[in-house]
Amino acid sequence: MKVRITGTGWELPEYEADNNYLSTIVETSDEWITERTGIRKRHLVKDETTTSLAAGAAKKALLNAGMKAEEIQLLIVATISSDTETPSTACQVQALLGAAHAVAFDINAACSGFLYAVHIAEAFIKSGMYENALLIGAETLSKLVDWTDRGTCVLFGDGAGAAVLTASESQGILSQSIGSNGSKWEVLSCAGRPNQNPLCQGEGTPGYLRMDGQEVFKFAVKTVPICIEDALKKAGLSPDEVTYFLLHQANRRIIQSVAKRLKQPEERFPMNIDQCANTSAASLPILLAQMNEQGRLHPGDRLVLSGFGAGLTWGACVLEW
Ligand code: COA
Description:
By secondary structure, the protein is an alpha/beta fold. The protein has helices at residues 19-22, 30-37, 50-65, 89-97, 113-127, 150-153, 213-235, 252-261, 273-276, 283-293; strands at residues 2-11, 15-18, 41-44, 74-78, 103-107, 132-140, 158-168, 173-180, 188-190, 209-211, 244-247, 302-309, 313-320. A hairpin with a 3-residue loop joins strand 12 and strand 13 (313-320). Helix 7 crosses helix 8 (252-261). Coenzyme A binds at residues 28, 32-33, 36-37, 111, 150-151, 154, 211, 213-214, 216-217, 250-251, 278, 309.
């Protein structure tokens, strides 16, 4: 038995902030951001929330899959920017959708979150415990970045993407490769709020995203090709047999470097980073859903989805569309 994606959806906040707008907030320029990252603009929430974006993407994915919310058995939201500490975003989305029969929970694997969700869902469906799953990557990272830190605030955007997974006899997920290295957690992190119990007296700063950009860059260009090669080997495929490589949209230069290492033309690495920036766990499902909507995916296409992020975490998934 295989597990396949039967529907996808995406949702972005209405407001678009281009690089010139950001140059009115921090000392930066369109030229610097575009050259170093490939980002031209990002969507930022005004009235939307992580939950509302997640629910919007999920509704479209259900429609695309031809399924009703009540049929969903497993609902996972990958996010690091939940609107509430508790309950989970997944439970709030469950209520908005009316997915009354689903087991709903969040996972935190930062930008690799969607792939971690795929990993979990495939195991549950293959075990026979559930027949389907609704997976959502949703973020409002604009509330986690320090808007005085030009080294990070220009990189991220808000958004959500979703996919419905179901058991399948023929096409679907062929292999996965996934990993974590907690010893490097400080390279990219966001502190929680300080404990203000009577004993601790609340030392610490608000939880803003902190990053050693060059370390993350080095980690990504080294780990992603190894991870993709491992997943392809498990699937018995060579990089030449892949239709598209969908990579986490963090930096155009990282994607170009991976393409070079895999000796593949850049055209097989679709990108929307110029429009969306880095939307963390939402990045891969947004890209997948947009390609699906544009009619760029055909039965039999072989796709590699790969991501990396805080943790450190990484993953790759090979599937036949
Ligand atoms: N605008 C203008 N200048 C900026 C800037 C900005 N937004 N951000 C940083 N700079 C400056 C730095 O202060 C530094 O100036 P200095 O030389 O006077 O000290 C200079 O640009 C170079 O900074 P550096 O950090 O060396 O640039 P870089 O080439 O490494 O590019 C990143 C920075 C963040 C774009 C790059 O390291 C990167 O993309 N890393 C991966 C980050 C990532 O993907 N994170 C998410 C993972 S999921």
